[in-house]
Write a sequence for this structure.
């Protein structure tokens, strides 16, 4: 009997060692006297640390978390933003190219630790002036749901439900108030409800579709509504697990 069990264990199919993700997003927003459009693309490659994932009955999107499979990830992204505001002499655009490296680990039985370092190069053109900037960012996450920003704060709540092993439903709500835009110290108020659907077509190939509505308004706007914009953002992400 012992020999039979050993044969079955050795013959079990191995799980994946990592994941590949390819994503794209587009958004369009309008307000009083302005229009904004954004297009974005990203690619990411991650490798699980210590062990492969085990094929079990858990939802595929949650397997790395439930099996405490730490991972190291590298990503690259590009974002193109265009706005036409009444106070500008012409269309204004921002191109952002960036990359990030992150480490997801489990230092104890109750905590998860996520550390990342990222680099972004931002360049604008058109409008009244042009400028370039380079930004380095480092963040440490300890499962906190709040963030302090200049002149305010940000909080979010996210819920995910998995009615089937290969399907996930996701909803989130984020509220922020403060100097949320890097180009100035003006205080804005912003709401972001999000709804998403993830579907693993096979155990190795998955898709995620997300819709986000973003409402932004200047707190001390004069006249009211001049700097208010409602944006609709749709993102599609392709995921592939690497064996």
């Amino acid at each position: 009997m012992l020999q039979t069990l050993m044969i079955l264990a050795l013959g079990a199919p191995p799980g994946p060692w990592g994941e590949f993700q390819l994503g794209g997003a587009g958004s369009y927003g309008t307000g009083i006297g302005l229009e904004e459009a954004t297009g974005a693309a990203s690619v990411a490659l991650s490798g699980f640390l210590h062990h492969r994932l085990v094929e079990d009955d858990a939802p595929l999107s949650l397997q790395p978390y439930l099996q405490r499979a730490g991972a190291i990830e590298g990503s690259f992204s590009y974002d193109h933003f265009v706005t036409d505001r009444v106070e500008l002499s012409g269309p204004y655009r921002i191109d952002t190219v960036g990359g990030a490296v992150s480490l997801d680990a489990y230092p104890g039985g109750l905590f998860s630790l996520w550390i990342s370092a990222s680099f972004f190069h931002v360049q604008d053109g058109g409008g009244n002036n042009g400028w370039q900037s380079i930004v380095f960012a480092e963040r440490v996450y300890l499962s906190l749901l709040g963030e302090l920003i200049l002149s305010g704060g940000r909080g979010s709540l996210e819920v995910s439900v998995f009615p089937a092993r290969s399907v996930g439903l996701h909803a989130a709500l984020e509220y922020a108030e403060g100097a949320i835009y890097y180009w100035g110290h003006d205080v804005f108020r912003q709401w972001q409800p999000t709804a998403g659907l993830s579907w693993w077509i096979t155990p190795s190939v998955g898709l995620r579709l997300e819709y986000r509505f973003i409402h932004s308004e200047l707190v001390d706007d004069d006249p009211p509504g001049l700097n208010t914009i409602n944006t609709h953002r749709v993102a599609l992400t392709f995921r592939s697990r690497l064996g």
